[in-house]
Design a protein that fits this description.
- It is an enzyme of class 4 (lyase).
- Keywords: DNA damage, DNA repair, Glycosidase, Hydrolase, Lyase, Multifunctional enzyme.
- Pfam families: HhH-GPD, OGG_N.
- It catalyses: 2'-deoxyribonucleotide-(2'-deoxyribose 5'-phosphate)-2'-deoxyribonucleotide-DNA = a 3'-end 2'-deoxyribonucleotide-(2,3-dehydro-2,3-deoxyribose 5'-phosphate)-DNA + a 5'-end 5'-phospho-2'-deoxyribonucleoside-DNA + H(+).
- The chain is an alpha+beta fold and 290 residues long.
- The protein folds into three domains: 76 residues, TATA-Binding Protein (2-Layer Sandwich), CATH 3.30.310; 90 residues; 106 residues, Hypothetical protein, domain 2 (Endonuclease III, domain 1).
- The chain contains 15 helices and eight strands.
- Strands 1-2-6-5-4-3 form a six-stranded antiparallel β-sheet. Strands 7-8 form a two-stranded antiparallel ribbon.
- A hairpin with a 2-residue loop joins strand 7 and strand 8.
- Helix 5 runs antiparallel to helix 9 and helix 5 packs antiparallel against helix 12.
- The radius of gyration is 19 Å and the shape is globular.
- The chain binds a DNA duplex (13 and 12 nucleotides) through helix 6, helix 12 and helix 13.
Length: 290
DNA sequence: TGCCAGGAAGTCC
DNA sequence: GGACTTCATGGC
């Protein structure tokens, strides 16, 4: 991997184990727009990013060398060796290989805690396009203006302080449905420091998973998503409907309970659970397994 | 129309 | 402590 400052953009060459489309569209990210093939506008980190990939070259159009190094490389998890991760998983069994092969360009984004907290509370019993709509409404109404692209205005994801001003009715108006009261509770507990990002980061995985479930509407699955995508806990293994389908197909001969799957994943994938989960999840969803 | 969606809480026994 | 129901909303 090599970073170069070109005349009009920042370029990263010789990039490996990375596919922009797969990484954005695998179901972990809810704020991006496809401009053309392998070219996207990403809304994250209180700014927009116009980014494009051609083969193993990445172009950052509206950014700086400093920003690419300090913000976007960590965001896209580009400093991590995915070759080692895939090798470890492939040596663990011969069942996950097809998913890794097909989705080999997926990286786990390092997104922001509060945004993931709110987003995955919304995600329960909802399809991804609709989650994206609600997150966009929240940002438009409570976030700050961060720029315009193709005549459309974009807004940052709001801070806990600002979003805590939203009422249950506000969230209902933004079509959050029965999750509205959960969102109010989440904001309240973050602002009051009852739920503190830094404390969660210092806890071990089990403690953090238990702690985050003090928020109403967060159970084991949503909690694991927040830990994986918003707190960098790569051992987190969220099990949703797609994971139940693919795990049953690959690893079990008969229907098993979620608890048993969770225990299996912990024992089998260990600290690499999050990567295994994302390859399998995207593979299962994209191929509409069972 | 009925069924399902990156589920969790409430209620029943 | 497990199984069943309910909770908004939208896409198919």
């Amino acid at each position: 991997m090599r970073i170069i400052a070109d005349k009009t953009c920042i370029v990263i060459e010789e990039i490996e184990h990375f596919d922009l489309k797969q990484t954005l569209e695998c179901g972990q990210c809810f704020r991006y727009e496809c401009i053309s093939d392998n070219e996207y506008l990403v809304i994250a980190k209180n700014r927009t990013l116009h980014i494009k990939q051609e083969d193993n070259i990445l172009f950052f159009y509206n950014s700086t060398m400093e920003e690419v190094q300090s913000i976007w490389c960590p965001y896209f998890d580009l400093n991590r060796d995915y070759g080692t991760i895939k090798k470890w998983l492939n040596e663990r069994d011969n069942l996950i290989g097809e998913a890794i092969e097909q989705k080999s360009g997926v990286r786990i984004l390092n997104q922001e805690f509060f945004e993931m907290l709110i987003t995955f509370i919304i995600s329960q019993n909802k399809q991804i396009p609709h989650i994206m709509q609600i997150v966009e409404r929240i940002s438009e109404r409570f976030g700050e203006y961060i720029g315009e692209w193709n005549g459309k205005k974009y807004y940052s994801f709001p801070t806990p302080e600002v979003l805590s001003k939203a009422t249950e009715q506000d969230f209902l108006d933004m079509k959050a449905g029965f999750r509205a009261k959960y969102l109010v509770d989440a904001c309240k507990k973050v602002v009051s420091q009852e739920l503190c990002e830094n404390e969660l980061r210092q806890m071990n995985y089990g403690e953090a998973l238990e702690k985050i479930q003090i928020v109403k509407g967060i159970g084991e699955k949503v909690g694991n998503c927040i830990l994986l995508f918003g707190l960098g806990r790569r051992e987190a293994f969220p099990i949703d409907v797609w994971m139940i389908r693919i795990l049953e197909r690959l690893y079990f001969d008969e229907p098993v309970k979620k608890d048993e799957m969770q225990a299996f994943a912990k024992e089998h994938f260990g600290e690499y659970g999050g990567y295994a989960q994302q390859y399998l999840f995207y593979y299962a969803r994209d191929n509409r397994v069972k």
